[in-house]
Structures
1.
Amino acid sequence: MLTELTIAQARAGLEAKQFNAQELTEAHLFGIGALNPRLNAFLTVTAEQARNQAKAADAAIARGEMKALTGIPLAIKDLFCTQGVRTTAASHILGPFVPPYESTVTANLLADGAVFVGKTNLDEFAMGSSNMTSAFGPVENPWKRRQDESAVLVPGGSSGGSAAAVAARLAMGATGTDTGGSIRQPASFCGLVGVKPSYGRCSRWGVVAFASSLDHPGPFARTVQDSAILLGSMASHDPKDSTSADRPVPDYEAACKRGVKGLRIGVPKEYRVDGMPAEIEALWQQGINWLRAAGAEIVDVSLPHTKYGLATYYIVAPAEASSNLARYDGVRFGLRKDGAELSDMYGNTRAAGFGAEVRRRILIGTYVLSAGYYDAYYLRAQKVRALILRDFTDAFANVDALITPTTPSAAFAQGEKMDDPIQMYLNDLFTVGANLAGVPAISVPAGLDSNGLPLGLQIMGKPFDEETAFAVSAEIERAAGFSALPQLRAGV
Amino acid sequence: MALDPTTIRRIATLARIRVEDDRLETLSQELNGILGWIEQLNEVNVDGVEPLTGGAQMAMKMRDDAVNDGGYPDKILANAPDRNGAFFAVPKVVE
């Protein structure tokens, strides 16, 4: 089955001419045709474009010009602008928007020979942890509860479509964005590796903005090595993003082989929260034991402000969102709903175009930035954010990486946690710290819960030291030997 | 700091989002729930702490103040809901 190959295996197979890029692409398009009507992982399938790219890849291979991703079918979160291909952010407000330009990250992937099979579903404007806020309907997680195969589970969010697509073998890898956990939480829910690199490692240019100081593009893949190959292509210095880091991109693939012998791995005690399911706690301990057995030294550390991460996030992210989303005014692109006067047109357009969660966050953001409340909310949150960064800086003075669970639970069912926004927000309890501090973090599948659903462990690294995070993640992957498969996948 | 319907009306106007009167009560409950939960930040001692604006652990770069892009109005206007020649068109603002 071509769809079961890893990116590394497919690259070797293409190079050895065991199959060609067009066959590889067709196998994935066939899977999409069979499963996407049910999963709703893709909002747009770009079959013709993919076939042309695969043909070009075969020509390049024939000329002996293989690059890092030549002929590899990838899925792109529909938050990345793709030239000539409709981009929605899973919102009605973008209407029929077709970008006249290509985001830097997707341009980097294309320059490395990748094939794009389509644009994936997400929570509207990446605001959510379940993919339930998409204006184009929810995504079904290809994994099923062993005891109840009829329950439809969420893939997590916001990058739920990307995670479902890679888990169901509809693409070999995917791009995502992570503002509070939106790559790592769906990766954990779908049994994938998800990487949120350091802030500044991947350009945000051409990515629809949610919260600019927290948004991080990154990859999904089925192995740590594959995710390293993807990040190596996506990362670059980009003068068009003023926060893009002007530093060389290391060889992440090589870093996966380093091992963990002699590394100091921190275990933050504040992540041991009340009410954490015993199986998640047990898996965390198992991960610690694996690393110790592989020669790492385990060190207890403290990140004292961990419990304030989510509240800080829910001031900073809506504040930045209320500012970023001001551009959707019905004038230059996207939806317009007419009104008698200009201000009516604005109000009507934004009421009709934004979904409930997006409107809620814009209103919260507008409030915390408004005169009289700025100091009490926004400025205070920025100060707590400084303390959270200080926690990480202090911890990393003593350790090389941190290990924690990725999420407080396995995938839940569609409709659960919908009554109270805060219940949904708690999904990001363990992931949001890395966004506030800008440090790299990887979720790696490490085991199954009692329902047979995947659970991930999170490895966090020092700023711009993705290499150590990859080395530790690869060790977890080796030790865990995670081989379980989702029930819904191409070719089954 | 509870949000009453009058305050919701004011921030909705600032945010340019039309909100129907019959939605104000529900919105007020939802937003107060979130703000009440956020109030936990008041426990943190932030005396003398400098606010952190972003996750970038580096100095911002400067660039030359020079035009390096542009000159394609048709591309810029291609997605406009309404246009008039080389301009975006909006409802009449000035009588």
2.
Amino acid sequence: MNAWRAPAAALVLVLACAGCASSSRSDEDYRRKAAKTAEAAASAVRTAEIGVRAAGDGKATGPYLSALLNEADKDLNEVAGGFMSRQPPGGDADKVRERTGKLLDQAVDVLDDLRIAVRRGQIGRLPEVGKDLPQIADRLESLDKELA
Amino acid sequence: MKRLLAVTLGILTAIGGFVDIGDLVASSLVGARYGFALVWMLLLGLVGICVYAEMAGRVAAVSGRPTFDLVRERLGPRVGLANLTASLLVTLLTLAAELAGVALAVELVSAVPYLLWVPAAGLLVWLVIWRVRFETMERIFGLLGLVLIVFIVAVWRLSPDWGDVLHQVTAPKVPADEPVPTYLYYAIALFSSAMTPYEVFFFSSGGIEERWKATDLATVRINAFIGFPLGGLLALAIMSAAALVLNPAGVSVDHLSQVVLPTSVALGKFGLGLALLGVFAATFGAALETALSSGYTVAQYFGWTWGKSAAPRRAARFHVVVLVALLAGTALILTGLDPVKVTEYSLIFAAVALPLTYLPILVVANDREYMGERANGRLANVMGTVYLVIVLLAAVAALPLMFATKAGQ
């Protein structure tokens, strides 16, 4: 029985580590993580953008949009929360944090509004609420390219 | 005429029954991330499953013995037990992911959180296994899964530049911003989604349930060589739809809702509805198969009476294993684990278990004592050996790549 314990514990540890986020030790490392964050955030925003466009064209149902936008919002909040909880190691990282944080805040605000609108059944309002999505996604993608 | 109808139904069932949550997630995820650059890997996996499904089906039809029965005999009880443990864990993970897939499909129609649907999905799967005849069960969900053809229609409606698509398929490149290890990690996940071990366990055990004989070899081959490739076409369409809609937008697939998004874009609400029905049928059908496969592998290893067609009183232990597997799968998803991550991990762990599944099939398919003149010919052996080398490479590389890429991040 004891023979199984060590490999089992090692497997659990290794699996846990496979999904872990490490801390940033340098400004360069912090920039890379900011780029990854911008990329993941852009993915959530683009998902919402495609969904909102489909809603505007009458191509998607309310329950489907509700799940799609809710998940995009949740993903974005996780990505933003994870990044903002990191300690910027130096002065350059402070600037990266400020720029990335501002953009993430804008994205979170729009996706929150979309989630609320769709939950209230206001499908027709989605294109209006989400009109800034393409611009926010463009800026996130530019930031990703610049920092990567 | 009756025979033709049965064969046609068999093919349609194999097409519809080919796709499961692993194919849905892996194909869409890879299409969104790499465009058409990994189509070759899907095709490679597809040929592999055809080769080994035919072999396993032929062995079942000629010798009357299913895959796991042979695994124990050929590998011995100790290695057989290790194989059973590995295969069962992978099948349980897959079962959990399929149940989540059923629940997620219902959530996308009802807007009620999927976790509330998971117990109902588990109960319904058990009821179908308990009450519905094997052939009826297989046909209903296989045929319903055919509505995934909506992805083929969606690709056609999206009007891609076919020349460009062909170029990307025939001259695949790792995207400049993607590390090679991550590309290989997803390549293995995709390969594994096509060659998942439970598919051959179910295919061969199902053959025994349907009382295949040597005279049914034509049906076995038609299912393996026509039904599976056409089923693979559905997986290819799911990948292509993601490559055309999600890849240009830079969307990474983390949810089932994103898998069906291209059908909404291309075909509107009707297309979306059909895609959701197809996802429901495909995952429900695969949940039946994985739950039964859990029972098949355990019962065949221990030499218990097994079979869905066997009366529960005669095959009590088999039915208990199926029930326990369903409860375990349901409980796993109810912990709140991300179903897409569960699917990804199940594919990588399945890759590790692949050689232990396929080696005994190749060995027995060559054994003239069992197979007589139906033993493997030269072509089957060349293909079987080549694929055994490929699955060995995939098995060795799967876990190191998972850790090196932080599970494809």
3.
Amino acid sequence: MANSLFEEKLNSGEFVVTTEIGPPKGADTSEMVHHIDLLKDKVDAINVTDHQSSVMRYPSLGGCLLVKEQGGEPILQVTCRDRNRLALQADLLFAYSRGVVNVLCLTGDSIDVGDHKEAKPVFDADSIQLLNIIKTLESGTDTVGNELKGVPKFYAGASVHPEADFIEPQLIKFDKKVSAGAQFFQTQGIFDLASLRRFMQYASQFNVKILAGIIVLSSAGAARYMNRNVPGIIISQDIVDELAAVEKGKGLEKGIEIAARFIKTIKEEKLCHGVHIMAVGNEGIVPEIIEAADIIGVPS
Amino acid sequence: MIVAEQKPLAEIMRMLAPYENVLILGCGTCMTVCDAGGEREVTFLHDALRLAQKKSGDVTHKFTEYTIKRQCDPEFLEQLHDRISGVDAVLSLGCGIGVQAIAERFIDLPVLPGVNTSFMGMTKEAGIWDERCSACGECRLDDTAGICPITRCTKGILNGPCAGAKNGKCEANKEMDCAWILIYERLERLQQLEKMRRYYPLRNFRAIPRPRRITSNAVIEAGESDG
């Protein structure tokens, strides 16, 4: 039996659409709640990011509770950058106790790329060890073997980077994530469908669900900035050129068009099990992309 | 070896302010090799402090200089007895261990750190030193083709690369090679990629309960039979 609506939807074989919301810098959650309301019926699940790009924000767990309160399906992003194994386990227990069971396990960006550069990086675990921590908790004990009173059950996932410029070690890591219990994957941003096709050829031997990451670009400048500054993101030159060709102020429109085109192709070719749309700061445009890609929002 | 950098002159002068007679003490081992606190640096610093004093018009400090073979070794510290009479403080250009060894040996003598101890590393080329070891207490270099992920990966992770590298460089520092790509390439060359496919569980941080002590049984047993 499925642990969550998100898992159920992925198991149904329908094309799944997820997106993500970055919590606010501060305690005012009104804009975030507005975005949740806007998106919750248009997508199958909403990731809440965990101090994305190592920038301190309202917590992902708090954001997931807001998604639940608004009637949406949350995916908790957990990174290992800021918590040791005690805190990771505690947060997972708390999440489960409040009905947050979809967990995306990430190592986390380096402290150096964020806004608290002098903070102590934790990395007591990595993403694969975090998946194993989940497996251990689900078996009824903590990581040192002490019995738990109340055993959680999650739907655990991880990320994978089909467009890494050095793919072989990423594939080894992907295998290890599958062995560690990852059941779904959200990929890093896809900008070249050929690499997604190659990756899916490889990944199809595993019984896991793959959602292709779609990053919505707002201008050629933003794309170049991401290429320079965002860990792992490699936006191909033809996409940058396509964005650069439009008149000023029309970048986001073009970005939506590109995203919708990718999603449409992925769906039509049945390349993978769904898409994960990352609108990075433009959460409000996600419904427009879904409409443009002609994918139907969640039926309830 | 241990690698350090000399502190800025202004910081050294602030520390020295309360003391009239100061011995600038170099260290003849690691600090000499990393150009932070050997005989040569002691002389340079001595000159710099004298000049700075002259310029400021405050000439209350008197400096002497000396370099011993190793500040971290009690045997060599014994040579200091004659040098420290009349001295109000020692400005040590030894690493953090040297500074503490002096403090432990001469309990009434203030000792000031003249360098920032940085890491354990090696000389890459003249004037460039690279960190190589974190003294984690559980060496796993056999599993990682002789390249330490704890030290050379900015996240110190054990199960392969994160997804942040671009052009083989680390997301935290575009000048720095991704340690896990280096490990992958070397394991492949050694035909040992299965070592990367293994799962490495959470690290045991009890291997490094601070402060650590290592006791050589051989030395103790030899001592017992002597006595």
4.
Amino acid sequence: MTVTLDPSTEAGPGSPKPGSPVRLAGLRRGYGQVVALDGLDLDIAPGELVSLLGPSGCGKTTALRIVAGLEHSDAGAVLVDGKDISKVPANKRDMAMVFQSYSLFPNLTAGENVAFGLRLRGVSPAERRKRAGELLELVGLNQHYERYATQMSGGQQQRVALARALAIEPKVLLLDEPLSALDAKVRVQLRDEIRGLQQRLGITTLFVTHDQEEALSMSDRVAVMNAGRLEQCASPDEVYTRPATPFVAAFVGAMNRIGGIASGTEVEVLGQRLVVTQAPEVPAGSKVTALVRPESVLLTPATAGNVRVARSSFRGPVTRVTVELADGTEVDSDLPSSAAVDLRPGALADIRFAPEPVMVIQ
Amino acid sequence: MTAVVDLSATPRTAARRKLGKGRVAAWLVLIIAALYFLIPIAASVEFSLRGVHDTHDLSTWENLFGQPGFLDNLVTSLELAAGTVVITLVLMVPTTAWVHLRLPRLRRLIEAICVLPLVIPAVVLANGVLVAFRGGPSWITGTPVILALEYVVLALPFTYRTLDAGLSAIPLTTLVEAGRNLGASWLTVLLRVVVPNLRTAILNASILSAAMVLGEFTIANLLLMNTLPVWTVQAGQQDGEVATAASMLILIVTWALLLLMSVFGQRGARRTGRSS
Amino acid sequence: MAETKFRNRRQLDLLGLLPFLAYVVVFLGVPTVSVVVGAFQDDAGGWTLSNIGAAVGDPYLHAFVVSTEISALTAVIGAVVGLAIAFAVSASPPGGVLRQVVSTASGVLAYFAGVPLAFAFIAAIGSQGLVTKWLGALGLDITGFSLFGFAGITLVYLYFQIPLMVLVIFPALEGLRPQWQEAASNLGASRWQYWRLVGGPLLLPPFLGALMLLFANAFAAYATAAALTNGIIPLVPIQIAAVMSGNVAVGQENLGNALGLGMILIVGLALAGYAWMQRRTSRWLR
């Protein structure tokens, strides 16, 4: 089900409200022994969509909930429009959140759900109905006004939840893994719709997810988190091609780990010399691990090749070929399927790496 | 009416509601409730420990078993409990297993039937028994046998639910087919395949029935039978201390049975790696 | 060929239910039907409505009124107090002490009703009771308070009404997702507004259902009242017992059946209401 963003059906005032800048400053939060957040600093520009990406337990949801006011921080502050709102109660923060599941109030219809925030603000019933109707149309569900949550699919429920959040024209939109509980196809579709709406309305948005594909495709910037700390916050392209830390390199996209020998500003891997992104502090000649992306691993079939194909997995336009090195290490290579035709399990091949700088760890 | 609900099971919701300003009120309610529920128990204990002239001793308890009629009625109640349990198991274990095995679509109907005893008040049931079975064979209707037969009905809501839950937790069809495949008769399958796998559920159902029987007063009283609760009330007309002690004894035995149930339940779960 | 075999198999399967059905019919169905039918019979075996007539006249109407009043009162008080307790437990940390204590207590107190309960209260606030003596030492004379009166029975009945309420309403309270309160708060609602617009409406059906269950429970209760009052208090179950033991005028045996029929109808109606409310609740309570 696609939504066409026709300007003539735009909800709310004539022009989108300019977004509000958000700053997270030094947020800390612990639960007994566990440290959920260890000094998080993040600036979000007006109208920007920033994803908080990381494995479970990295603190991304905690950070989001602190911004929303649903949890308090042990230290640090949250500033919106330059003002510290850390002491402001959750229901006065002018933010709206979309949850992963069970978002909608089950005793209200979709329309009543969307109108909920308006009702609290004293908007008249007639005006409420009108605005709720417009918002539901914006998310493509204007036929569902009278339906209840249990009568709608997961994707539809999340759309209504989004409409409900947008109804109050919040300064900040907070999304807590809103797509995680949905089917893959619905997820992809809704992803684009959310991004489209967000851009059109120019709302500053903080989006929590553990799915890197989601983060990379939707965000203006991606903030990769690990163990309560921010590892890197940059554009999707930069996070992918120029990861700042080994964690980011390994978490975002797939990464091979191949043994090599350090040599100043270069590393020697399987007979090939590659420039390193940052010289490790080890004496030359010591063993290090090079991180290479599968798409930077080039294989050519060769009868006297130095690696053997272990398995090959056809994925449509790309085939992932896994080869085994002499020392038993497995290396993944993503090749255009046409180039992988002769690389069947058991075949021998030559391995080369794309001449780009690689990240090296001890 | 009893219901078996585990309040301490971890709820599906991770975050908990904060009480905020209501905290004081909540604790006040809990404290008053605790007092309300504990004082009568404490009073019972104290009452049963009263000796002569404001002293406290164990005289009432020591003399309890010697009270005229006590032992006989205690034995009757215990026999009734055992009898009810036996009849219940013989009737309900095969029935519930059969429903699960061959008539799964009728499960809701059977469940509805087994809830009926809750709709008919015990008083009315007793009345009905008196009216309907007036002319019945006296070895049934004139003796506690009729009580056991009716107690089976009274216990149906709990016993069926317990056995039903236990059966839902085991791969019944597979087990039975395997047994039959190896040449076992239906009886053998029942005794050697179904029952051993239902140990916990059977134990729970038995204990719930026994506990109910030990404390049951209404039907026993109205059918003029001599069970321990009936004796207790009669004794209470003369000696409140004896009656209080006797009723406490009933409670203690009941709670001991319930404790047994939870202990065995946990042990069974640990052994088999699951809980029914 | 296979079809007839299947049909016979099906009939054979149903045969397996015969012992159970026969048992239920004989030991539950027959007594119940006897009561219902007997309500409309006179001593000679003919049909009459005189039993019904007598049952809704004095003094039995008074018993119905009192039973209804006590059942309603203990249901309302029990529901409110039970809800408060359940609420406090629901807000406590999961796996904490409070939950364990209340869980065990509710299960254990359920077996208290009847004979032990009656004697426990006599031991507490009877004329020789512990609390009576304590209050007497403080200068408060409560020996005038009768356990056998309206107030006394109410106080005693609450002992099993409250735990029942806690058990019944707790799943509904736990079923209120925290996301709903958080979303409401997010959209600008205060706690009071959340309860008024979302939480309250969601809890209303299970609350009403529980009320009806408590009502049925109290109305049907016999043992506690009998053990406590020895038949003095005018409650419908007590009246039925009196008729059964022959404490009525000759020719009124079937009156007991009429009273029983009345009880079945009232209790059945209340439980039907409870079941209906449960179905409405299950729409959102997973």
